[in-house]
Amino acid sequence: MASIALTIAGSDSAGGAGIQADLKAFAAQGVYGASVITVVTAQNTHSVTAVYPVITDVIEAQIEAVLSDLDVKAIKIGMLGMPDVIQCVSKRMSTYPGPIVLDPVMVSKSGATLLPEEAIDTLRTSLIPQATLLTPNIPEAAVLLDTAKADCDSEFKAQGKKLLSMGARAVLMKAGHQSGEFCTDWLITRDSEVALSAPRVDTKNTHGTGCSYSAAIAAGLAKGQTLEEATRTAHKWLHQAIVEADKLQIGHGHGPVHHFHRVWK
User: What is the rounded CA–CA span in Å between residue 259 and residue 59?
Assistant: First the structure.
């Protein structure tokens, strides 16, 4: 029987991030993917040119359709966009018994704002407390904490611990925005700090890394892995997807990672 994961996120018309990246990441981990679309974007590897939120009635209907029929073992939540959408999703997640991976999508790779200021507090108070795992990058962590971006490893980990106080059971601090020869993420819980390190890859083709990472973790959880096992597996897979990204040659800007590097070159 196939393990099933659900992604609740925005659509990327170029296919490199959002729902499309999540479904690819699920499939790459051997997990069946279902989806709930919250936002439709017009974007490519250069920019996001339009954002169209889906009304909450349609979002709620999609969630109910999936969860009433499919045995969803884990949920990944990405771009939500507006406060009413966050509240809608939060209300439905309050009765979901499985693990929830929350990727607090705020800014696209091209720099477009994907989460308005008025939605940030709603995210903090309504959805983060329901998360099994929160997966912010350095800028997102700073916004959630209303503080300056971390500029050293100790500050980076300290911010992760502060984010735990918002209610998530664990926080994965993603270090892709740092510099240096190695990129070290930190999986932080109330009882442990786990480093996940890999050589930094020199490529511009990193579109969708955050979406794909969190989705791959959700896939691992759907298969019954522990949080640490799922995160380690996803980290190793994503690193190789970045290594192989240049072979795809998709678009002329920030291209996607190679989700299926294990299957085809």
Answer: 27
